Amino acid sequence: MSDRIMGGIGLALSLFYIWAATIIPESFMADVIGPSTFPIIIGVLMAVCSLVFIARPDPDPVWPPLNRLAEIGFAILVCFLYAQLIDELGFAICTALASGYLCWRLGGTPVTAVLTGLGLAAGLYLIFKTILGLSLAAGPLGF
Amino acid sequence: MDTLANLADGFAIAITFQNLGLALIGAFLGTMMGALPGLGPANGVAILIPISFSLGFGPLSSLILMTAVYYGAMYGGRISSILLNIPGDEPAMMTCLDGYPMARKGMAGEALSLSGIASFVGSIFATIGLAVLAPQLVKIALLFGPAEYFALFTIAFATLGGVASANQAKAAFAAMLGLGIAMIGVDTQTGVERFTFGEMHLMDGIDFLVAIVGLFALSEVFIFLEHRSTGGADEGKLKNIGRMMAPWSMIRACIPTFTRGTVIGFLAGVLPGAGASLGSFLAYTAERQIADPQGRTFGKGDPRGVAAPEAGNNAAAGGALVPMLALGVPGSGTTAVLLAVLLSLNITPGPLLFAQQPDVVWGLIAALFIANVMLLILNIPLVGLFSRVLLVPIHILMPLVAMVSFIGVYGISGSSFDLTMMVCFGILGWLLRKMSVPLVPVILGILLGNEMEVNLRRAMTLSDGDWLTLVGSPLAVALWLIAIVGFVAPMVFGARLKRKMAEEHDEVAAGD
Question: Mean pLDDT per segment of 10 residues, for chain A of length 143 residues?
Fold first, then answer.
């Protein structure tokens, strides 16, 4: 069943892709086959693959139970928050919070999680900013 | 003798204090990453590319660092295979078969040092093979026109699923997904926007580094979150390593094994669609048929059963570099990631690279020799240290992987848009893995998509729109035939081969 759903999504995606390829504007520097031919070929092949999924699905993979899915969902949320907040809060604070959360959810005790968060933030800052001189986002406190 | 002179030049360029230091660091990091289950060569190289890119070393220095990581990961994969019966990466699967029984007999140290030597022999001869074979392949590649190149790229996609691929539709779907993503952005030939939907950040296309780190590294974190309770029970099982060095008699008895494993592995590496996993599998099964046809000692801790797959897997890793460097078409997952390294340094591999930037090519090959020697030196005495890495708990390791991924991607452009994009690729990678859609074709599609399209359009322009030009020369026809055979063969043999590889592994696991 999972394969059929993927096939359905793939089919919708490929149709959308082909449509989006047909509305690519013409250019004054056109070559023989133009900018939309290759994308259309890709879209068609993708649709064919999707039809194969629908026609001959593999056995279902083992999907995690609902609480595990929620677990992954929250981790994804934390990653998105990291991406959004890094410019406001800075590298060190974001890293401490995100890695602490991940550590806790991967089975660390709360104390280990806090220590891991602080340790990773400090250690990575030291290695990448102080020693290697990479530009990391500076927060309100300057790190 | 051209090769030797070129190689000498390469060594002259590669041997500087900084480069040797980078090779050492790379070899060390790579071995650690290879040893850690769940952080294979492709992941290890992937999270380091953006960082080495942002640090702004010269092209050669970055290459030396990354290839040392690549070879190091190939060495490291055997450590957890032998000590824990968990392959550190997929090619190290066959090493479990006799490595773990050896460790149970208290011969872990012998198994580790013997497999270290086997890795060294395999990769050093594969590197020699690379130096000899790649320039020959370049001579053929110089005959290629745009139509032939288009067919060659098709071969890469058709065979990448591998001989052991279970479902070719999924491999093809993955390739199309990657190619589709590559089309996003401003078209280089006509200057019109494609698939950007007015989004400014998409004008330049999606950076392949963002995609690689998200698909490989971040999705790994999600996988670990999903299986949290099943892992982490291995810590008590770590064996006492015992004596550090295999006795000379054991090494000497394995010399024929080294030779066979290396030859088989190298060939498997050079051929499209085979790669290191198949190299080690073939090396192991061939060795068993030759050395122990009755099945008396193999699978119960025969040293030759450790030497053969390790020589094979490392020789295949070197062999896979031949098509990658000479044609610009990678033959395996890890070389696809190495191609990303080259492209991020603005080096386009292929015949022109050998003609225009021989210093990069031969410096790289020299670097491979250097990395190998360093790995041998590091691996024999320090293997106890590396095996300690296995004790790092997942709940510290995985946050570290995630944060290093974030740092790397943020370092490229400093934009939180790229970070968000990377998280999206992480989700996509997790979903695709669950659906057993291979990730490597996606990466390769993103990497090669534009080049492939350029060749198609160039061929079309030359022929004035006649599609038959794609099969217009005998060479092109031959390439198309290879692509078709490479795509169809796994449908016939793939399921059987995959089952056989799994059975081999299960037999030993069941005998625990």
Answer: 90 93 77 85 93 88 87 92 89 91 88 92 86 77 69
> Nearest CA to B15 among B373, B371, B368, B367?
B367
Residue of A nearest to B195 (CA): A20
B193-194 and B185-186 beta bridge pairing:
antiparallel
B226 Cα to chain A: minimum distance (Å): 6
Residue of chain A with shortest Cα separation from B451: A38
Residue with tokens 């070389």, as numbered in its chain: B335
Q: State how far the Cα of B155 lies from the Cα of A69, in Å rounded to an integer.
A: 38
Question: Chain A 70-129, CB below 8 Å of chain B: which residues?
Answer: 71-72, 75-76, 79-80, 82-84, 86-87, 91, 95, 98-100, 102-108, 112-113, 116-117, 120, 124, 128
**Phi, psi angles (nearest 5°) of residue B185:** 115, -175
Q: Which ranges of B357-439 would DSSP assign to H, the alpha helix?
A: 358-389, 394-413, 416-434
Residue of A nearest to B214 (CA): A79
Q: Which of B172, B224, B394 sits opposite A49 (nearest CB)?
A: B172
pLDDT at B189: 79
| Nearest C-alpha in A relative to B393 | A108
Domain interval for residue B455: 2-511
Q: Tell me which residue of B501, B503, B102, B83 sits closest to B299, measured CA to CA.
A: B102
Whether residue A106 and residue B394 make contact (CB cut-off 8 A), yes or no, is: yes
The residue with tokens 């449509």 is: A19
Separate counts of helices (H) and strands (E) for chain B: 23, 2
Range 173-232 of B in CB contact (< 8 A) with A: 173, 176-177, 179-180, 183, 187, 189-195, 197, 218, 221-222, 224-226, 228-229, 232
How many angstroms separate the CA atoms of B124 and B423, rounded? 38
Residue of A nearest to B416 (CA): A83
By C-alpha distance, which of B83, B32, B77 is closest to B239? B83
Stretch (H or E) spanning B194: strand B193-194
Number of domains in chain B: 1
pLDDT digits (tens, 9 = 90+) for B283-320: 888 888 888 777 778 878 888 888 888 888 888 888 88
The ranges assigned to domains in chain A are 1-63, 65-143
Burial label for B470, CB within 10 Å (0-12, 13-18, 19+), is buried
Instruction: Give CA angle at B344 (B340, B348), nearest 5°.
Output: 75
- Here the tokens at position B396 are 């510290």
Is the ipTM higher than 0.85? The answer is yes
Q: Which of A22, A40, A62, A76 to mutate to probe the B interface, most B CBs <10 Å?
A: A76
CA distance B389 to B371: 21
> Is the pLDDT reported for residue B388 higher than 70?
yes
Q: Are B269 and B275 in contact (CB under 8 A)?
A: yes
Interface contact flag, A58 B167, Cβ < 8 Å: yes
Q: What is the token pair recorded at B440?
A: 């490597």
Q: What share of chain B is helix, strand, coil (3-state, %, to 5)?
A: 80, 0, 20
User: Could you tell me if B305 and B97 are in contact, meaning their C-beta atoms sit under 8 angstroms apart?
Assistant: yes
Scanning A7-36 for CB atoms below 8 A from B yields: 10, 14, 17, 20-21, 24-27, 29-36
The DSSP secondary-structure symbol of B492 reads I
Listed residue (B29, B94, B47) closest to B316, CA to CA: B94
Residues B453-479 have pLDDT tens digits of 988 988 888 888 888 888 888 888 988
CB-based contact B134:B459 (threshold 8 Å): no
